[in-house]
């Protein structure tokens, strides 16, 4: 993890304002990175967990919130019922908030009728609708279990005063050559486009340069300071990912040095 990933997290907007499907949004506070020093983050954990550490360090650097609880499992004897991502306290009004953090990469599939169902993972493995159901019906309700109540009692916290919110940040990708007008979700989350391999092989992509990202780099805002490849050379990397049923994310640089993020799906 490095500063470019921190900046990428801060540049990513929340997927909705106020509330969506009875899930209030936790608006991440503005952060001044002056004096911020990134502490080591484990490299052998998935990106989602690394982003939790980013969130925790940035909140710690912020003067607005104090972290009371971070990544706390709630157990019934030997069985884990779930995990509380964050319990934060506002340093000004002392209000306590339970925050479930989500950071997602979704392609928008306009062939699906309702907007709430159009957002799916680039490998079609996860869906926005399923995630918000899980947040509302499982992660938020964890606070109401007797095991969570007992934990709060031990911490000296009054659970009835705790409000649950989701900090749901996302990068969205519209289909190639199809502009999408989001009705209920934040259009500023759209950061690039997706396409299939046969479209990528068309002549209008031949003259561009490409960089294939590792999963940890997906969060980063594109920069010119990488080793670029031609379409023919990057094709080998793409096909290797497709053989593993993975949709790679690329940075693309055109003849005007315009930088874009793209997904090339395998399905």
Task: Describe the protein.
The protein has 267 residues and is of the alpha/beta class. The chain folds into two domains: 3-171, no CATH class; 193-265, no CATH class. It has helices spanning 3-11, 47-61, 115-118, 128-139, 146-155, 197-200, 231-243, and strands at 19-20, 23-24, 65-76, 79-90, 96-108, 119-120, 162-175, 190-196, 209-212, 249-253, 259-265. The strands form two sheets. Strands 3, 4, 5, 6, 7, 8, 9, 10 and 11 form a nine-stranded mixed beta sheet that branches. The longest helix has 15 residues, at 47-61. The radius of gyration is 20 Å and the shape is globular. The two termini are 31 Å apart. Pfam families: DUF1853 (PF08907).
How many discrete domains? 2
Largest sheet: 9 strands, mixed
Structural class: alpha/beta
Which percent range describes the beta-strand content? 25-35%
* Unreliable sequence segments: none
> Total strand count, please?
11
Number of helices: 7
Listing every helix as H and every strand as E from the N terminus to the C terminus, the arrangement reads HEEHEEEHEHHEEHEHEE
